[in-house]
Hints:
The chain has 299 residues and is an alpha/beta fold. The chain has helices spanning 8-20, 23-30, 34-48, 64-88, 102-109, 113-119, 180-183, 196-204, 221-229, 239-247, 278-292; strands at residues 53-56, 59-62, 94-101, 123-130, 143-148, 157-159, 163-170, 188-191, 215-218, 234-238, 252-254, 259-261, 264-268.
Amino acid sequence: MLDKHINLTWLRTFEAAARHLNFTETAAELGLTQTAVSLHIRSLEERLGNRLFHRRARHLSLTEIGQAYVPTVRQSLSDISLATTSLFGSATSRMITLKAPISTSALWLAPRLPKFKDLHPDIAFRLVSNIWTDATGFDDVDVELRVGRGDWTDTPSEKLSDEDIVPICSINQRHNAPKLSDLLKGPLIRILGQEADWGRYFAAHDLVMPTDVPEYFVDTMTAAIELAATGGGYAVIIKRLVDMANAAHPRVLIAGDPIPIPNGHYLMRPRSKRSKRPEVLLFENWLREEFSTDTTPDA
């Protein structure tokens, strides 16, 4: 058993060096000299009585015990940062840049952000919306949400939700609830990039996708909801977005049972070696909780 506490600064230096495997890059991240980084690592190794790195000419690698040690150190540092941010906040405003699909952003995320802001008033947000999922990188984005099947190749992802779709129409049809046979007559509102959803919905009810029916094509679920709300026809929309759109003022009627779809919401994982800021980790944990306990806010 160690008879003295480990210097936290040494552990921070070790965690950064384990990510970069380069003392020069570690020094640049931490605002230290390369000599100071080497001293921290050497002091930690002496304190532990074990080598954490193999040092060879122009090559640095973790020893087996170093590889075993770094996940615990990383998690512990993350826990300390999260606890500190959650309990004490910061004297200065911290900005999180968040990128999300426009419909998720407008219908699901934006109504929830004030709740997070109430908990953490010192954290500011820059919300960037996009229509088409693309691989734009993370240079200026702290948190990115995508909707899809999780098969992107530009960066890893973490699934946050499964999704169902439901058909919708104007709330004015509530006194004469439409049947599946009515949906087959259209007009059908189809969303670019998700045109297969109507075929998927009909197939789930052993029906064939109709042909020669009036159709609209729009580029977002937000536009599809607006068009359906004004009597333009029927659309199939992710149910959680419909629930949020109806939360304050019901405008569309759910015109059939939900069916599952392959798409879900995903939290993207940047490949950057830099550690995430504590406020970003805090917000990501909040997002996970919101998706796992999703209930429609009170009107």
